[in-house]
Amino acid sequence: MTDCVLDASAIVALLRRETGCERVAELVSDPAASMSTVNLSEVVAKLAEDGLTAGTVRESIDRLQLKAIPFDAEAAFQAGFLRPLTRHLGLSLGDRACLALAQRLGLPAVTADRSWTALQLPVTVQVIR
Question: Which residues contact 54 (CB under 8 A, 6 or more apart)?
């Protein structure tokens, strides 16, 4: 099993076939791979910015069969409480949503963002490149 929580940057790297995409492909082949709905929205936004149609975006993401975990009130609190601990690195709401979900589930967070390795959080961070 490769249970993990995927950041939007990892999925975008996979869909754009960027460096590290092979590792992400391995992770998403496991039905236990998940992501926050906030990160899902970020992936949709990036692909839309790339000029892909709504149908193509949906098809590309649906093909991955990721488990999208709703960003509920508890997730909002957890991500909010991470702000003071991550502000020095400029982490976004999406970044914190990923980290909060990983922390809540006790799983590693997978990202393309190397700056996350400098975080002092009770979350394992795996960088794809």
Answer: 48
* pLDDT digit string, tens, across residues 93-122: 999 999 999 999 999 999 999 999 999 999
What's the angle, vertex CA 96, arms to CA 62 and CA 72, rounded to 5? 65
φ, ψ of residue 6 to 5 degrees: the values are -95, 135
Q: Is 102 exposed, middle or buried (0-12, 13-18, 19+ CB in 10 A)?
A: buried
Query: How many other β-carbons are positioned within 10 Å of the β-carbon of residue 120?
Result: 6
Q: What is the pLDDT of residues 13-59, one digit of tens each?
A: 999 999 999 999 999 998 889 999 999 999 999 999 999 999 999 99
What domain count does the chain have?
1
DSSP conformation class of 5: E
CATH of the domain at 48: 3.40.50.1010
Count the helix, strand and coil residues of the chain and give each as a percent rounded to the nearest 5: 60, 10, 30
